[in-house]
Design brief:
single chain; alpha+beta; BirA Bifunctional Protein, domain 2; six-stranded mixed sheet; 4 helices; 6 strands
Length: about 140
C-alpha cells in the first residue's frame, strides 16, 4: 500500500518446547498486544485478524490460539485465511495479518507477522524459534479525510 512507513517491530526468540508451544504463546502475546494497542489508539475501528496455517494445523490453531484470543477480545473478528499467498516461503508454520475497518468503512492493513527460520539459520540450530510482528505506525495514525 505504501512504499515507506515507520514500523513497530515485535520479536520473540526461544527454544522449541514441542507441540508448537513456543510459537503459539509468542503469536498470542504479539497479536494480543497489537489488538490492545490499536483498540486504545483507535477505539472507533473494528479489527479483523486473518491467520494462515502453513503447516496443516488448522483445527489446533483454532482451538489453542484463535479461540482463546477471541475470548479475550470478543469485538475482534478472527478467521483463517488459507488463500493468502504473500509471505509463503518467508514465514513457516503460521502467519497472520491484522486489518482495521475505520469509521468510513475503509479497510486498512495494519500489521503482519508470523514464524520465521532466521535464528535457526543464523546459529545452525533447528531447535531455535522466532516469531515476529510489524505494525505500520502511519497506518495506525491514518484516518480517512
Amino acid at each position: 500500500m505504501w512504499a515507506h512507513f515507520r514500523v513497530l517491530g515485535l520479536v520473540a526468540a526461544g527454544r522449541d518446547r514441542g507441540s508448537f508451544a513456543f510459537e503459539a504463546e509468542a503469536l498470542a502475546k504479539q497479536i494480543g498486544y497489537l489488538i490492545e494497542l490499536v483498540a486504545r489508539s483507535r477505539p472507533d475501528w473494528r479489527l479483523d485478524i486473518a491467520l494462515t496455517d502453513l503447516a496443516s494445523r488448522t483445527p489446533w490453531l483454532w482451538s489453542d490460539l484463535l479461540d482463546p484470543l477471541a475470548a479475550r477480545s470478543p469485538d475482534v473478528t478472527f478467521r483463517m485465511d488459507p488463500e493468502r499467498t504473500s509471505g509463503r516461503g518467508y514465514y513457516v508454520d503460521a502467519c497472520y495479518k491484522l486489518f482495521a475497518i475505520d469509521a468510513a468503512g475503509q479497510r486498512i492493513e495494519l500489521a503482519d507477522g508470523g514464524c520465521t527460520t532466521w535464528t535457526r539459520r543464523l546459529i545452525s540450530d533447528a531447535k531455535e524459534r522466532l516469531v515476529i510482528s510489524g505494525l505500520g505506525f502511519e497506518r495506525l495514525l491514518w484516518s480517512a479525510a
